[in-house]
Amino acid sequence: MKDNFVGKLFVFSAPSGSGKTTIVRHLLNQEKFNLAFSISATSRNPRGEEKNGEDYYFISLKQFKNHIKSEDFLEWEEVYRDNFYGTLKSEVERIWAQKKHVIFDIDVAGGLRIKKKFPEQTLSVFVKPPSIDELKIRLKKRSTESEDKINMRIAKASVELATAPQFDKIIKNYELDVALKEAEELVSEFLGLKEKQE
Questions:
Q1: 0.85 surpassed by pTM
Q2: pLDDT of 17
Q3: Is residue 5 part of a domain?
Q4: Is residue 112 in some structural domain?
Q5: What confidence score (pLDDT) does residue 33 get?
Q6: I want to staple 127 with a disulfide (CB 3.0 to 4.6 A). Which of 20, 54, 141, 166 is the partner?
Q7: Are 103 and 111 a contacting pair, CB within 8 Å?
Q8: pLDDT the model gives residue 194
């Protein structure tokens, strides 16, 4: 039996280091939005403090490829060689079953695929860094990756920035406070909360 809850999807995409994760975490803390985080599956190993089932579902390359064969993913991508990321259909179903809206912190290609699958239900937001140079500084500060990996991410960022116009909205993350406020307003508007407050 279907009830009248129709879950919305909020896609936040950006080049690595743009601050999308910080924005997504902030939105998850706003109870009025009733959001739950879509945990992506990945074939890569955990980094730093990352926990399985919390930050990602860490699965083997073989398992990942089996899920692709079984069409278990809403979207997936080989981001770097043998380094897969994807959103399991069961993850969105799990969140909707809790009568919550889904929020994604996801790469650009994946974000656009979700928008394509659920055009009416999805708000896609591109988070824009101040500049490529600033991005490089932020990635170096993280000190979680080698110089080569950082350079790979920077090269990818240039390509990703070109896709920004394909998203519903663009947030320029130059000042974090301003970006957070803007993100809140976008979510509020898409959920129809603004009219209710006024």
A1: yes
A2: 84
A3: no
A4: yes
A5: 97
A6: 20
A7: no
A8: 72
The Cα-based distances of 152 to 18, 80, 86, 188 in angstroms read 15, 9, 20, 35
Rounded to whole angstroms, the Cα distance separating 193 from 198 reads: 9
Mean pLDDT over all residues of the chain? 92
Please choose, from the candidates 16, 105, 23, 7, the residue with its C-alpha nearest in 3D space to the C-alpha of residue 56.
105
Long-range contacts (CB closer than 8 Å, 24 or more residues apart) made by 56-60: 57/88
Q: Looking at the 3D structure of the chain, how many domains does it have? A: 1
Q: Give the whole-angstrom CA distance, residue 18 versus residue 171.
A: 10
Looking at residue 94, its amino acid is: R
Provide the pLDDT confidence category of residue 156 given band limits of 50, 70 and 90: confident
DSSP code, position 81? T
| pLDDT range class, residue 4, cuts 50, 70, 90 | low
CATH number (domain holding residue 128): 3.40.50.300
pLDDT per residue as tens digits for the range 29-70: 999 999 999 999 999 999 889 999 999 999 999 999 999 999
The span from the CA of 100 to the CA of 104, in Å, is 13
In a domain, 173, yes or no: yes
Q: Which two tokens stand for residue 107?
A: 């790469």
Domain that includes residue 98, residue range: 10-189
Residue 150 lies in a domain: yes
SS3 helix, strand, coil % of the chain, rounded to 5? 45, 25, 30
